[in-house]
Amino acid sequence: MPTIVVDVMPKPEILDPQGKAIANALPRLGFTGFAAVRQGRRFELTVDGEVTDEVLAQARQAAEDLLSNPVIEDVVNVAVLDGTAAEGQNA
Asked: What gap in Å lies between CA 70 and CA 45, rounded to an integer?
């Protein structure tokens, strides 16, 4: 079954305390060269059947209306995971 992936990130002007904590921990764990970290959320929507333009449009609408908080988050990607129709189309 195909899967649609939705990636949601905090808006740039929103503080990201989890990302900051991760960024501070990276050098202590030996991971260097990273200037900043932003932590987001990923949703995987399994599709019952073929991914059509209509299904992808519904996934985009669900991302905007339900999966993200538009006040503090942006939907940055809506894409088909497994290489079926409309692969890699962004929101």
From this structure: 19
What pTM was computed for the model? 0.81
What three-state secondary structure class fits 74? strand
Q: Looking at the predicted structure, is the pLDDT value of residue 84 above 70? A: no
Give the Cα separation of 2 and 83 in Å (integer). 8
Among the CATH numbers 3.30.1280.10, 3.40.630.30, 3.40.50.10540, 3.40.50.800, which is that of 3-80? Answer: 3.30.1280.10
CA 89 distance to own-chain centroid: 13
Q: Indicate if the pLDDT at residue 57 is higher than 90.
A: yes
